[in-house]
Request: fold
Amino acid sequence: MSEQEFSTVIQEVPVTWQRPVPQGLEKVLGNAGTPRATIAASRERPHGTPGRKISHRTVLQQHVDFFDEDNDGIIRIFDTYRGFRSLGFNFPFCLFAAFVIHGSMAWVSQPYWFPNPLLYIYTENINKCKHGSDSETYDTEGRYVPEKFEEIFTKYDRDNKGGLSIWDIGRLCYGNGNVLDIFGWLAMIFEWGTTYFLAQKDGILYKEDVRAQYDLKNVGKRHERGIIHQEILETLMEMEMMATAMPNKRDLVITVCILQTQVAIKIYWNSGVSFRHGSGYTMDESQAFKYYQGLADEGLANKG
Reply:
């Protein structure tokens, strides 16, 4: 059947044109409905996350591996708590998330029938933890379906801003809800709410930031925010010492300091790391540069 012989929209059925399906995916993704076992592909990233080559873990397993810091295939309650804390969430939320996730998903992931009282989650069986009322971007085997991912945005990003507002996410949760699936509703709201508050920028959860959550490219190095902040500050301290040791080359040192800071921020920002001020305010790339440049200027001025 040719493309002209069927339609995806019926004018008399408003929901079909209010939530349009993606078009033209075959040009960049081939058969976009075919699940990808190891890559989180999209129209913009048909080969998944650049530089990420993992052939032995499904996309869903890659997603939860973020919490398995020792790579032993077991996620403990404290692992989940620590993972959420490393993302910047507060103590009550992290504790709540850890017990809710393990209380609802541990038993179905276990390789034996008798429940483990420690509520371990086994990543080899994480596909069994898939719930209803979701976007179906993960299939029941833990693979990734690009077409379903693209549908999230063609259906709910109605003004084509390249991402989802909190209201769009509300419509998404309502639209994907299955009848009487209370657990699925709650899980979907929890997951999308958490993702929004983690990755939104200026109130918008952008498409690439959502895609990156599927294989967790954005937070694959779990402590990166704190480490990067510390590395940049240490660089600035070294530049301050150089400025003191070489007063006749002070202007050169200041220039090098500023350039190094700018390059570091550019590299880390392109790798998906968001910068945060100590108050928790999220900075974009230019704001981060101004922030660290201000620290450099202040430190060098004090050394003068």
User: Anything to note?
Assistant: Residues 218-227, 269-282 have pLDDT under 50 and may be disordered. The CA atoms of residues 2 and 127 lie 35 Å apart.
